[in-house]
Design a protein that fits this description.
By secondary structure, the chain is of the alpha+beta class. The protein folds into two domains: 138 residues, 2-Layer Sandwich (Fructose-1,6-Bisphosphatase, Chain A, domain 1); 110 residues, 3-Layer(aba) Sandwich (D-Maltodextrin-Binding Protein, domain 2). The protein is built from seven helices and 15 strands. The strands form three sheets. The chain has an eight-stranded mixed beta sheet with strand order 4-3-5-6-7-8-9-10, sandwiched between helices. Strands 12-11-13-15-14 form a five-stranded mixed beta sheet, sandwiched between helices. A two-stranded antiparallel ribbon has the order 1-2. Helix 5 packs parallel to helix 6. The longest helix is centred in the N-terminal third of the chain and has 21 residues. The termini are far apart. Bound molecules: D-MYO-inositol-1-phosphate and calcium ion (CA) (2 copies). D-MYO-inositol-1-phosphate binds next to strand 5 and helix 3.
């Protein structure tokens, strides 16, 4: 397998970072600070990031790294690691048991994410995929759902932290989807939304305003599970472009037409 060494290492460090998250979850020692009123960060996000960043740098000194809380490593090599040390900080800080570590590795030669690892330490669920190799949950192969009718589909979405200040805050799109589907979930973790789609728990997902570290890992897990991941206009997904629509492939056209409909 072409990306085996990278995948194995990403799995190993995701599990260790998961232990850091578990140690801080619902702990009185976890300190919350505010990047803005709605955008939180904790000492645990930072501890997890420091661990992941130092580990990757040591193991692959010629790889680049972009991590959410500011760690950067700019190298010439093929691979770029997008690291979210704690996806769903709001859930985590409120004691809501739904958060994860998310890592996506992008190849500058292929212009694609080639490996993704998302680890939910509380439920001990490790999702992973490498291009061409399929997608796995705790070692078992996973596949997207078969739902072909949006009317019996469960979708997930999310809203940007600066939802009070920006026009593109996803409420208009939410209003369009809600009456048409079985349900829309706002679970609070973009990476796990994508993994839940990959293993058939939900059927579709869309969200604007995300960053590469939110989407990169989960995007390839969906693709390798047989799903489709694109921009809202169906162009090829790009982790650096702040827009994602992902589905089991069967309801993709319908989701795109709803997203782009007037009113
Ligand atoms: C957030 C989560 C959430 C999404 C937000 C993200 P964070 O990531 O993925 O589901 O709706 O837009 O910023 O900040 O908790 O790592
Ligand atoms: Ca995130
Ligand atoms: Ca985060």
């Amino acid at each position: 397998m072409a990306f085996q060494k990278i995948e194995e290492f990403a799995v190993e460090i995701s599990r260790k970072a998961g232990d850091i998250l578990l140690k801080g979850f619902r702990s009185k020692d976890t300190e919350i600070s505010y990047k803005s009123r709605t955008d939180l960060v904790t000492n645990i996000d930072r501890e997890s990031e420091e661990f992941l960043y130092n580990s990757i740098k040591k193991k692959f000194p010629d790889h680049s790294i972009v991590a959410e809380e500011g760690s950067r490593e700019d190298r010439e090599g093929e691979f770029l690691w997008y690291v979210d040390p704690l996806d769903a900080t709001n859930n985590f800080a409120h004691g809501i048991p739904f958060f994860c570590v998310s890592i996506g590795i992008y190849s500058r030669q292929l212009n694609k994410v080639v490996t993704g690892v998302v680890f939910d330490p509380l439920h001990n669920e490790l999702f992973k995929a490498s291009r061409g190799e399929g997608a796995f949950l705790n070692g078992g192969k996973i596949h997207v759902s078969q739902a072909g009718d949006i009317g019996i589909s469960i979708l997930a979405t999310g809203f940007p932290y600066n939802k009070a200040d920006v026009k593109n805050n996803n409420l208009a799109e939410f209003n369009k989807f809600l009456p048409l589907v079985q349900g829309v979930r706002r679970l609070g973790s973009a990476a796990l939304d994508l993994c839940y789609l990959a293993c058939g728990r939900i059927d579709g997902y869309w969200e604007p305003g995300l960053k590469p570290w939110d989407m990169a890992g989960g995007s390839i897990i969906v693709e390798e599970a047989g799903g489709l991941v694109t921009k809202y206009n169906k162009d090829e997904f790009d982790p650096a472009f702040p827009q994602i629509i992902a589905s089991n492939a069967r309801i993709h056209e319908k989701m795109i037409s709803v997203l782009n409909s007037q009113g």
